[in-house]
């Protein structure tokens, strides 16, 4: 009986135990990040093999009915999936490991942050790690080809030169208005225009115009100013991440400055509970990426002697030297960069401190660039509710390469049969043994004797106070400033002809203040997630510019303008601009599936009259996460699938000058006076009816993650229409002036973007990952409000704006090659016929000479993008990145210049000229030396060589390219046993080592017009970009 009772009790206890293992109970838990221990909201927590699940709240907490035998599956974007047994504990603490394949789980958006999974706008993200792998001097050059929809053109190979950046095509017809707004740690810092960033280096010329003094017509007038890149002041090694806002919902929070897109730069910060000291040293060798094939001394003598013999003047060129002037002024320059940073933090205080030195000289001798920079980012948790902080950077740059392009151009065109030095060792100027030539050109002397330098110091930063009275509300006020001082000095020594012996100095000051006050709301109520922000912003900018000049120095060693015999004021300028704004944004998510958002910003700008000053910019978005629906939720291959769309409005505040709607006055240019008082005349009449440019954008997108987040795909379609574009428009001269700022028309952009990131292979010791993006954009002018069908772009010949066509069409005379029987150039007459009379010569006899011209496309590409590959094997890592552009056109003015032999200074020529037409039946594209398209002989003031005119299609080429932009091989030394070192990496790298292109010039990726995307498409002996070989070391302590 006792045995029976014992058996019954044992069976009962087992039954009770079994029942407890199968009974569901409520379990609470907390989820933290394996990266920094931060609490993780919005983590999906599911019971394996069931439909039970939930998501963590804003504090990383969750509750769920589970059994002790259950297994929990935790997933979140940016982290690897975690499976953990539920067990018998009532309170769980779980840690999610970071997934390096999906970085930047939380993205920076305007005036706040948002989780990547909740984004309903079009945003591209580039990590700081990707940027520092590049050897670029500035981050804009580092991100070329790395973000869908972002097209960046490097203007030249001059260190610190400007870039042209467009996001989703041109945003306006103003040459300066398509640059995006750039915000660094909450401070808008860029978009002030080319004139502010241009520095005059020619003492004999006036201040630079809208395109730095450059112009194109039949020939090319070189610029008299250098346009610097303001972004080069920021050390790329200090950048944590870059977010590029592209659609209206993402950008509308910035309102009137966001039509061209927004680039948000976030710099590095210290992290709680960590300390890292890093040092990086990189040494490089810099060379030009190519070299033109020019005539040698003997060939030069022969060509020019033949030409003059055919003209009947019998001039003989008989120089005995054979000088390679390009070799004489170029070098293999040595670059050096040293970065040091300390990032650390405790529970209360975090800080990031860095310093950097960069020397990146030009490959032109005696033309150097140096940058010194420092950064300090601090934050302190004064109490549970109060946090204070400061982000501050300072930089100082010295650039003596302002005139490098002029020296390079001079070397290409200097007669090769002349020496560099005279017999006594002095510099050889003049024509030498040649009957014609430039009496003052000696490129080596220009590089070594003249002085051209730009010194610029800048401070950029903000300080903030943040108060969090309750968990879901954050109040923040911040004050930011940007202070910039630039000093440009140019000194030209006296030459034998008396030319030179002058100097000019220009000082520029730029002051900006910004205040932002925001209230942020973040709360999760059951299945409802709300993230909102409202605030106010004020911004004011002031520019001052003064220039002085002098000539007649006692000797070449004197630099101070005060020592010149003759001194003068070149000009003075002060201008101000202010913007006040109010904004709000609400993002809403329900049940982790359905998303919606609304944004509104009201801007008031001093650029417009009182009755046009304020304008509102609303936007709306919606999203649907299909992967959370029951019909897709159990698909193991699908991690995330989200459809999103947006519509909204933005504006363009940069299309108008500082005083766009107001009348502008200047002292009479002829120094006229009345009763001894100088006359003040109107330069531009006011236009009180001038309206804002307003852009409506529609975006449809898809975000998808597959195969355990190893494949991530983003696809976007956009349509953008801008109305009331602002441009200086011609008005009747009887009113007393010629132009006025007006709203002249409408324009459209539409396109597709595809971005793919994939981990193609992962093994124990080997991995292969890739990223690829491609963008297509179509631009079209819909309406132009002026008399006539077209309008030419300022300072360019035959690049026109026309309704129904893309902006900046090349509108050119039809070059049809060389007639094989006569050797004369052949032209199309616009009616399908061939003529030997150059159409451009018929202005005085033909009513509509434009009938002879045709549209030939634009400098804007049809497709562009980039592709990168990363291979790792044990401690080795190989990175290679390619960028490409397809369909963009370029006027090869370099080829035109090097085929121009009819000039009185007899410049050197391309070796192509040796293939000029000789006898009937000779098939060539180089006409005979004396032909029907050259109107007069050499030396005439009325000379017109139509064969080398940029206004014909002869020199228009397809500048499509595929470029190996960077390649890097790194090795991580094993330092686990060395307690002093945290990491040690050695690497070698190369930049611009390979380019595949059909373009006959050296570099298909240059622009003679600096940062203007609308005026891109001209190579005028522009300095090609450099190629660079580097060796570096990264040390972590």
Beta-strand percentage range: over 45%
CATH topology of the largest domain: Maltoporin, Chain A
CATH architecture of the largest domain: Beta Barrel
Q: What does the largest sheet look like?
A: 22 strands, antiparallel, barrel
The domain tally reads 2
Tell me how many strands there are: 56
CATH superfamily of the largest domain: TonB-dependent receptor, beta-barrel domain
Give the CA-based shape.
globular
User: What does the average pLDDT come to?
Assistant: 84
Low-confidence stretches are: 5-20, 203-218, 937-942
Class of the largest domain in CATH?
Mainly Beta
Helical content, roughly? under 10%
Estimated radius of gyration: 33 Å
Instruction: Note the gap between the termini.
Output: 75 Å
- What structural category do the secondary elements indicate? mainly beta
What's the tally of helices? Answer: 11
Structure characterization notes:
- With 1037 residues, the protein is mainly β.
- The chain has 2 domains: 22-96, Sandwich (Immunoglobulin-like); 132-291 and 328-896 and 958-1036, Maltoporin, Chain A (Beta Barrel).
- Helices cover 8% and strands 47% of the residues.
- It has 11 helices and 56 strands.
- It has a 22-stranded antiparallel barrel. A 5-stranded mixed β-sheet has the order 10-19-20-13-14.
- A hairpin with a 6-residue loop joins strand 42 and strand 43.
- Helix 8 (404-413) packs antiparallel against helix 9.
- The protein is globular.
- The termini are far apart.
